[in-house]
Amino acid sequence: MRRKRTFWLLALSAVFLIMLSNAVLCKRKPGQGLSTKFSDIILGNLKPGMVYSLKKERGLPYKVMNTGDTKRTLEIKVEKPGGGQLKPGYEPIPDPAWIRIIPERFELAPGEESNCDIIISIPQDEKFANRHFQALLVTMPVFFPDEPGVHLAFAIASRFRFSTGPTPVEVLVENRRKILEALKIEIAPFNLHVSEIPTGKVIRLGKGEYPTLQLVNRGKESYKLKFGIADDPSRYGLAKDYIAAPDKTWLKILRKTMKVKQRQIKDIGMELNIPDKEEYKGKFFAFVVIGEIEGLDFPVRIYSRLYIKTKE
Questions:
Q1: Which residues pair with 156 in a beta bridge?
Q2: In angstroms, rounded to a whole number, what is the distance separating the alpha carbons of residues 24 and 4?
Q3: Which three-class secondary structure state does DSSP give residue 176?
């Protein structure tokens, strides 16, 4: 039977970590860690009797990153969620075998990501039509008999929700509300110009004569954001005469994560340190500061451009 390509992806998210309460026969080594941006995957309008590939038909591989400092063998399992893990309007998947992860076992060196496909195969049966199912994708290390010790294993889990019909209205309403609230967060000003920056000296933005960017929350909820510097500022469109800074590490964000309460404005502490070289004097450089809102069921990123002119 030919596959239909009518399903859609509603949301993905930032890192979602949980600790599983099962002990395994292995010592947990220092420096181990896992992360994924898929905390919640929501699909709608799937059809019983069809087979769907998230990677092939949506170009969306399931990625897990090894954030530790040792190579690890990992395995992804599909499990039924418990009652306390079910989201409103969903029921546990009748059979975890409906979902296959390819590959389900793999090795990752430190900093490497997996590139897995999620295959969904729903049996051809009318009783599965117009229902809403939930599963858990659990990634955990594989331990071998020659590794001694009895210790607690840590894993990451992602919710996987899909509907054989329209997605529950309450899910759409809640996601719309979260999106609208998140849009009330911004980094201001959108373009910050700072002039007469001396080379060979650490300059603290937000102190003395030098302004800094601010995190502004006009919404009714508190948020936590993770900050970074764009690798290629030119992708964000730069003002005339400005070029991307040759080295993004010239700009340092003093706090990589920041919490902002409702109706609050906070300075983003930053330092500039331009090397004292002749070719960097009297130049127009640009950086892009990116903030990613954490704790949402979809990725929301905001950014601002920082334009600087160095002293002659």
A1: 17, 139
A2: 41
A3: helix
Burial of 285 (0-12, 13-18, 19+ CB in 10 A): buried
- 155-163 and 132-141 strand pairing: antiparallel
**Segment 277-311, tens digit of pLDDT:** 999 999 999 999 999 888 765 667 889 999 999 99
Which domains does the chain show, CATH number per domain? Answer: 8-167 (2.60.40.10), 178-310 (2.60.40.10)
pLDDT at 89: 86
pTM score, two decimals?
Answer: 0.51
Place of tokens 């990501």: 113
| pLDDT of 111 over the 90 cut | no
CA trace torsion 177, 178, 180, 182 (10° rounding):
160
Q: Is the dihedral of CA 207, 211, 213, 218 positive or negative?
A: positive
pLDDT at 144 over 90: no
pLDDT, residue 6, reads 42
